[in-house]
């Protein structure tokens, strides 16, 4: 998912939120919503589909506001029912507020059962609603309520909360999901999952919200609170590998640059071992790594695959059938480029194997002599519980098969994954979650472990 907020802006706040969310659309395409405040009341509009399908100019004008928060949804926890679409609106005698959340609360089930037993009634099935209930239940100032609630939550979260006149940004203590704050206008602020959304609203990055930190934005400026000292910096490696846009910076590392260096590392591991004629990247997320591979190996970078830009992200389609059709609609081979060539094909990751299998087939049908597949990340052998790859062991091809079996399944002439060490070297940081490659999770897993983890 993607979250975005603007506070105290001179333009229509909903319109800025719309533009910001539009730059985050790649983070979720199933649903979206915006809540706006004019300092008096909080109003919300949300729906299913892409932003452009949900909002028109009249709706944005009607929402208006000087502050706004919004969300683009990729459902990893809870289904895609309208009740789960965010912002989650809390209408309470103590004041209304809106919540947007990216990530996955691993102890949501436990907390929900406890709250339901106290008589609280939930609207939907998403883990994000738990946050809203916890805040409403606590006592103290609003920021104290948030701090108490955040201390109950385990897992991955970056969330933004908006009351009628304040905004809060919160990150989990392991720093799994990104959230950055920026200046906008004279005295306005902006919070975003990714820095790429700042450019479009003319915002300038201040800094990342730290793991275990809450920022309070009010008419007297910014205040930062550390809600726990048990912190780690475990930024999701998949944010760099696949999820984020190349023009975003995460923890001050540019995503395109990180991917490009992972391409360098792949080429270094191959040096002198494989012969190929051209390097081809799978658009869009693997182009940076393919450029890196070409730079390091000296092999020419070619446009062997073209993407139809009117098809969204195939992986983010809920069913396998939709995903397979998606890949077919999305990519085609450039016959004149790939015919009779030995191709070094670079992709960012293999999850179920759907994409790679189809692409190798495409290239061979177009006359490629050999297709060598290089993956800019290690083999995904474990499920993610933090809101990215929800796959179970059964779905994850590398959990079931060896590298050689995966190679045979996708029909490649050779297959190699980047090692964890090379990935760390390429990104230039050890502050990463690598759990889906290693199985070492930074948090307890609670009841999720029983359903998904292989004993
Ligand atoms: P597969 O087809 O193997 O199931 O999925 C891998 C492909 O899906 C990669 O090409 C990657 O670019 C794309 N993809 C889309 N969404 C995600 C995601 O959330 N995680 C990962 N690892 N890959 C994704
Ligand atoms: Fe990211 Fe993998 Fe960690 Fe999930 S398990 S947060 S996808 S690195
Ligand atoms: Mg891809």
TrEMBL record:
Signal peptide (UniProt feature, chain positions): none
Biological or metabolic pathway of the protein: Purine metabolism; IMP biosynthesis via de novo pathway; N(1)-(5-phospho-D-ribosyl)glycinamide from 5-phospho-alpha-D-ribose 1-diphosphate: step 1/2
Alphabetized CDD domains for the sequence: GPATase_N, PRTases_typeI
Residues binding [4Fe-4S] cluster: 236, 384, 433, 436
Top-rank EC class of the record's enzyme: transferase
Domain Glutamine amidotransferase type-2: 1-220
Pfam families in the record: GATase_7, Pribosyltran
Source superkingdom: Bacteria
E.C. number: 2.4.2.14
Binding locations of Mg(2+): 285, 347-348
Cofactor: Mg(2+); [4Fe-4S] cluster
Catalytic residues of the enzyme: 1
UniProt keyword annotation of Transferase present: yes
Keywords: 4Fe-4S, Glutamine amidotransferase, Glycosyltransferase, Iron, Iron-sulfur, Magnesium, Metal-binding, Purine biosynthesis, Transferase
PROSITE patterns given in the database record: GATASE_TYPE_2 (PS51278)
A single GO BP: 'de novo' IMP biosynthetic process
Cofactor note text: Binds 1 Mg(2+) ion per subunit. Binds 1 [4Fe-4S] cluster per subunit.
Catalytic activity field: 5-phospho-beta-D-ribosylamine + L-glutamate + diphosphate = 5-phospho-alpha-D-ribose 1-diphosphate + L-glutamine + H2O
Main function: Catalyzes the formation of phosphoribosylamine from phosphoribosylpyrophosphate (PRPP) and glutamine.
Family of the protein in this entry: In the C-terminal section; belongs to the purine/pyrimidine phosphoribosyltransferase family.
Protein name, as recorded: Amidophosphoribosyltransferase
Source organism (scientific name): Copranaerobaculum intestinale
Lineage of the species this protein comes from: Bacteria, Bacillati, Bacillota, Erysipelotrichia, Erysipelotrichales
């Amino acid at each position: 998912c993607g979250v975005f907020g603007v506070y105290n802006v001179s333009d229509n706040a909903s319109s800025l939120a719309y533009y910001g969310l539009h730059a985050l659309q790649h983070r979720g395409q199933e649903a979206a919503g915006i809540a706006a405040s004019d300092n008096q009341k909080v109003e919300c509009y949300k729906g299913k589909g892409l932003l452009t399908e949900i909002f028109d100019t009249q709706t944005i004008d009607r929402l208006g506001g000087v502050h706004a928060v919004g969300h683009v949804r990729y459902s990893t926890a809870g289904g895609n029912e309208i009740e789960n679409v965010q912002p989650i609106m809390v209408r309470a005698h103590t004041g209304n507020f809106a919540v947007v959340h990216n990530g996955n609360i691993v102890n949501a089930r436990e907390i929900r059962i406890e709250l339901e037993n106290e008589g609280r009634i939930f609207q939907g099935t998403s883990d994000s609603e738990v946050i809203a209930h916890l805040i409403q239940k606590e006592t103290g100032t609003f920021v104290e309520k948030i701090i108490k609630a955040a201390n109950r939550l385990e897992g991955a979260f970056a969330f933004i909360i908006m009351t009628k006149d304040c905004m809060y940004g919160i990150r989990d203590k392991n720093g799994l999901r990104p959230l950055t704050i920026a200046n906008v206008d004279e005295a306005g602020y902006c919070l975003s999952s990714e820095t790429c959304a700042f450019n479009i609203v003319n915002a300038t990055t201040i800094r990342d919200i730290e793991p275990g930190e809450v920022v309070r934005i009010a008419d007297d400026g910014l205040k930062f609170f550390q809600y726990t000292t048990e912190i780690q910096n475990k930024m999701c490696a998949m944010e760099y590998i696949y999820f984020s846009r190349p023009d975003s910076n995460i923890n001050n590392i540019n995503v395109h640059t990180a991917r490009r260096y992972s391409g360098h590392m792949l080429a270094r591991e191959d040096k002198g071992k494989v012969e190929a004629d051209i390097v081809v990247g799978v658009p869009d997320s693997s182009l940076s790594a393919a450029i890196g591979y070409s730079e390091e190996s000296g092999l020419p970078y070619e446009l062997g695959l073209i993407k139809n830009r009117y098809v969204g992200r195939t992986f983010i389609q809920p069913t396998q059938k939709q995903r397979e059709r998606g890949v077919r609609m999305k990519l085609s081979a450039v016959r004149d480029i790939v015919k009779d060539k030995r191709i070094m094909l670079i992709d960012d990751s293999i999850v179920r194997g759907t994409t790679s299998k189809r692409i190798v087939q495409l290239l061979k049908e177009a006359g490629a002599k050999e297709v060598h597949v290089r993956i800019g990340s290690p083999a995904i052998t474990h499920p993610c519980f933090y809101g990215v790859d929800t796959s179970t062991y059964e779905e994850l091809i590398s959990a079931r098969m060896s590298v050689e079996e995966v190679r045979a399944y996708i029909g490649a002439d050779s297959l190699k994954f980047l090692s964890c060490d090379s990935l760390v070297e390429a990104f230039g940081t050890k502050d990463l979650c690598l759990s889906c490659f290693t199985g070492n999770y930074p948090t307890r897993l609670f009841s999720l472990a029983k359903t998904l983890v292989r004993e």
